[in-house]
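Hey, quick one: can you model this chain's 3D structure?
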Amino acid sequence: MKVFVNGRELEVSERISLLDLLGLLNMEVKAFGFAISVNEEVVPKSRYGEYILKEGDKVEIVNIVGGG
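Sure thing. Here's the predicted structure for all 68 residues.
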């Protein structure tokens, strides 16, 4: 199925979770560092493993940068 990650189309398997998607993208879940929204709704890190993507979902992965 097709999903969009940061505006790029990506072909993934059916019933893929956000956690599985991060693995495909070689990203590790850490306490801090990035946030994910699906269709403009933020998904808590505690739900990455259970959140199943659907055809056409728009996933945005945003790096969190501190500064002052």
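One thing worth noting: The chain has a mean pLDDT of 91.
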